[in-house]
Amino acid sequence: MITVSNVSKSFGKAQIIKDISFVAQPGQITGFIGANGSGKTTTMRLISTILKPDCGSIEVDGADVVASPEEARKNLGVLFGGDVSLYNRLTAWENIMYFAKLQGMTDDEAEQRIRILSNLLDMDKFLFKRVAGFSRGMRQKVSFAKSIVHNPSVILLDEPSTGLDIYSIRDVQDFILTCKEQGKTVLVSTHNMHEIERLCDNLVIIADGRIIRNGTKDEILRNEGTDDVMEMFFRIAEGASR
Question: Which residues contact 129 (CB under 8 A, 6 or more apart)?
């Protein structure tokens, strides 16, 4: 579970996050929606312990991200902004194994987990090949796997489908749904309406550092009206493309 309570964050004189609160529940996928500059990525960095809030509190499975950041990080798997930074001279297997060891996993634990992830993400054909020369989709899958190799209970995904082809998008979305079925808490930012429709149970919509909508996808559609919600998403997507 992720619990964000009355959190604010400023950089210099600019207040980026303004007293926001929301909860992301286990066994559900929460869509975090906002245009560029809305405060979406800053919020996810606060949850991940990269940044500290100026006020308010954030808990990840009961661990306070400020008071107990190491405990919070044990429960977190994080992929930011389509990050595909990998060691090109290593194989996909070696890249994932390296991060597994950083998480304190034994060789046997890591090997078993890597094989599970390789099967779920359809990486078997390139698992033992060097990363140099991999396509964007292949690199994204390896980056995804290294981020969650330690089997975290809470997963933060910042636009995980960025730059992927249709087949890789399907594999990644299927895996996210598998995480939901396993009871994990998933917070995913996206501007893709199809992704929202297929994946999300709940929506948290942020604009100018404030939460403007927060509820189940069905509640928001019912209360706002489908046309109004679609227009809202189009405005968000347009802002994100700039």
Answer: 91, 92
Last residue of a domain, one of 93, 123, 151: 151
Residue 23 and residue 50 in one domain: yes
What pLDDT was estimated at residue 159?
85
The confidence score (pLDDT) of residue 76 equals 96
Q: What is the pTM of this model?
A: 0.88
* Count of CA atoms in the C-beta half-sphere (13 A) of 86: 31
Residue 85's CB is within 10 A of a number of other CB atoms, namely 9
Q: Tokens 């060691």: give the residue.
A: 87
Alpha-carbon distance values, 169 to 151, 185, 233, 240 (Å): 21, 20, 20, 19
- Total count of domains within the chain: 2
Instruction: Count CB neighbours of 42 within 10 A.
Output: 19
17 phi-psi bin (left φ>0, alpha ψ -120 to 50, beta other) = beta
CATH of the domain at 7: 3.40.50.300
Cα 227 off chain centre by: 27
Residue 186 reports pLDDT greater than 70? yes
User: Residue 65: its pLDDT value, please?
Assistant: 97
Highest mean pLDDT among 146-155, 158-167, 229-238: 146-155
> Given pLDDT bands bounded at 50, 70 and 90, which one contains residue 146?
very high
